[in-house]
Amino acid sequence: MAGAPLVLIAAGSDSDMPHLETLKKELGKFKIDAEIRICSAHKQPGRLQTVIGEYNKCNEVRPVMMVGCAGGTDALSGTASYLSHFPVVSCPPDGMNNTCLTNPPGSSNAFIVKPANVGKFAAQLFARRSKDISAALDANIQEKIVKLEQADAKLTGKSTPPNAGNGKTSVTGAAAAKPLVVIAAGSDSDMPHLETLKKEIEKFKIEAQIRICSAHKQPGRLQSVIEEYNKSTQPVMMVGCAGGTDALSGTASYLAKFPVVSCPPDGMNNTCLTNPPGSSNAFIVKPSNIGKFAAQVFACSDKKVAAALEVAIAEKITKLENADEQLAKRRRTA
């Protein structure tokens, strides 16, 4: 796929234009093209479906991510993520909007509160597809770490170490490399949740590996694991699975050169959403939606994943149409 990555910023109203322009600015910091579109799920459902179809075709020639921006009840992200062949991330103008998290299985949108973190998440998603985006992501990670090390050096009176920062470890994925989802957990006590995630991901023909690395108990090891996958030639996505205060996803997403999505074993855990700028993990509550989101992330680069995704979308729509037809038959024969 030769086309430059694209982020579609889709809003339910032009009254949210300041928020939309902020998102576009944050994406621009990482050299990512962005387009703003207005299409309300409540007022223009048919048009929204047409717009999704338009970008599904675009996703065949250039990788696409959508940011859904709708306040109140966020039907836009839920509808778009059901029909799309690309990942959808909610970033509503009203901030902590839990309707972004309560969609049914199949509506696989992830949720990020801060526009700055949407920009970085998109960069992590596209870093292996663009050297410019990869370089911008490297610089962003290194700049903030160097700033912290310099602040600490001033307090201690010691000089900043010569290798300050995180270094540049960007890798261009091999064309035939199969995608990989790393399921990273803070404890093996959550194994039933981890196995459920693995099962849901594998439904879409995606390899999944479970790793145990606690941010609280093994911070150095967690950093080593992130660096290991930063160097992988496979396209990678990580699922962070930590209950309580989810430090794992926040730490991983700060250092990672790939997207990180939280799916904690304790469900609606808002600590997945309150990380500072730079900790760019998205949040999905349901394991089945993690599987579909991963398929949307990798569909543009893997034909088997794309085929499994199309089957999953069509299967549920056909089931709904058949159920409606059965009800119609009952009415006709009553």
Primary descriptors:
globular, alpha/beta, five-stranded parallel beta sheet, 10 helices, Rossmann fold, single chain, 334 residues
Structural overview:
The chain is an alpha/beta fold and 334 residues long. The protein has a domain of 124 residues: Rossmann fold (3-Layer(aba) Sandwich). The strands form 2 sheets. A 5-stranded parallel beta sheet has the order 2-1-3-4-5, sandwiched between helices. Helix 6 links the parallel strand 6 and strand 7.
Using the coordinates shown, work out and report the CATH topology of the domain at 6-129: Rossmann fold
Poorly predicted ranges: none
Helix/sheet category: alpha/beta
CATH architecture annotation name of the domain at 6-129: 3-Layer(aba) Sandwich
- Helical stretch count? 10
The largest sheet has its strands arranged as: 2-1-3-4-5
Break the fold down into its secondary structure elements and pairings.
Blueprint lengths: L5 E6 L5 H12 L4 E6 L6 H14 L5 E6 L5 H9 L4 E3 L19 E2 L3 H12 L4 H26 L23 E6 L5 H12 L4 E6 L6 H12 L5 E6 L5 H9 L4 E3 L19 E2 L3 H12 L4 H31 L1
Parallel strand pairs: 1-2, 1-3, 3-4, 4-5, 6-7, 6-8, 8-9, 9-10
Helix pairs in contact: 1-4, 2-3, 4-5, 6-9, 7-8, 9-10
In brief, what are we looking at here?
This protein is α/β, with parallel strands linked by helices and 334 residues long. The protein has ten helices and ten strands. It has a domain of 124 residues: Rossmann fold (3-Layer(aba) Sandwich).
